[in-house]
Amino acid sequence: MRHQVVLQENKSLREYNTFAVPATARYFIEINERDELQGLVDPQQYVPRPFLVLGGGSNVLFTRDFEGTVLKINIKGISSSAEQDGEVLVEAGAGVVWNDLVRFCVEQGYAGIENLSLIPGSVGAAPIQNIGAYGVELKDVFDSLEAFDILTGEFRKFTREECEFAYRDSVFKNRYSGRFVVVSVRLRLSTVFRPNSSYGAIEVELRKRGIQRPGIRDISEVVSAIRVSKLPDPSTIGNAGSFFKNPVLSDEEFNRLRKKFPDVVNFPMSDGRVKVAAGWLIEQCGWKGKKIGHTGTWMNQALVLVNHGGATGKEIYALSQDIIASVHDKFGVILEREVHIV
Ligand code: FAD
Ligand code: EPU
Description:
Blueprint: E1 8-12, E2 24-31, E3 51-54, E4 60-61, E5 66-73, E6 78-80, E7 87-93, H1 98-108, E8 132-133, E9 136-137, E10 142-149, E11 155-159, H2 160-163, E12 180-190, H3 200-208, H4 216-230, E13 238-242, E14 248-249, H5 251-260, E15 266-268, E16 274-276, H6 278-284, E17 291-292, E18 295-298, E19 301-307, H7 313-331, E20 340-341
Parallel strand pairs: 2-5, 3-5, 4-20
Antiparallel strand pairs: 1-2, 6-7, 7-12, 8-9, 10-11, 10-12, 13-19, 14-16, 15-16, 17-18, 18-19
Helix pairs in contact: 3-4
Uridine-diphosphate-2(N-acetylglucosaminyl) butyric acid (EPU) binds next to strand 13, helix 6 and strand 19.
């Protein structure tokens, strides 16, 4: 069967990125069904390359127009297996809104992703940077995914090991950058709920609410409330969440830093390295809540760069360069961007 793609031209991307910066895609295709992807490699149809895969646009910054073809992934559907030994497999299309999947699982009593409540974006993007929040990362519940290979035109499965997940990282940001379109993701969830309130803020919020034995819904609600209090809502203030990763230092590097700055906020990792709070570093450099032209950092979270209205991607990118330089000058630490810069 022939899968005819419908190419739109000169499409504005302003509504397709949560920074709400202006940019245009030279070509734009909406992918609603898995098999439509085959149209992209059909020699009888001309689909200009390069491709840029887009979900909810909540982790990209456009600093220019895109001259190739944007693939907007809308593939829907959520299904789950029968329970076996206290586990269920839940599979969702890449175009499902991540938080809709979380809500579905919370309602069904499938535990494992309630700490990831309210993260914006799509299911298909979740493995790309191994989304994480409040003590849980996608990799903790990930079973496998199906992806379309733009190079060979074939579908293939990736196991958890093959995804090479790490903190805000996967094989799809490295060796396979730009090569695969995630089509669906399968999670292994538990029907037995054990709350994960290891992240300090969750305990504090549970105590405030007088909840001693939280259920799955409590954790989801508490995480959502913490997020709303700290992070700007992209529907009113353009942003892409944390703009930088928290830098991970070796034991030696960290001790050198702590000698000079004893208050440095940090999270020891299981492999002996130490994650340092980038928000703290940025705040200490005087950037928190500062407005620079149309852009700035968020008043409750210095790690989040924002568009106060009318900012361009170039302006936001320039601010990120200034922040990197000042954190480096003061602390000798190099911040790495988390957001995908186009
Ligand atoms: P997009 O921005 O559309 O794309 C992101 C990257 O994934 C791009 O490189 C894109 O090419 C690629 N991609 C997207 N879909 C596919 C696909 N189907 N196949 C292959 N590649 C694909 N992230 C966290 O980890 N934790 C948080 O707590 C968190 N909080 C946030 C809070 C706010 C307010 C905002 C705005 C963002 C936050 N983020 C967080 C970042 C963002 O929500 C996640 O990175 C999310 O997974 C991005 O999903 P998306 O669909 O919007 O991806
Ligand atoms: N802090 C400051 N000043 C700030 C911000 C933070 O001093 O302006 C310090 C505070 O001590 C705070 C600590 O840093 O207690 C940690 O802050 P927070 O709990 O907000 O978490 P984060 O490390 O800044 C990370 C993720 C978030 C995720 C939260 C919760 C990264 C890059 N960011 O932020 O993910 O939601 O933890 O788990 O790892 C995202 O990736 O877009 C994102 C929002």
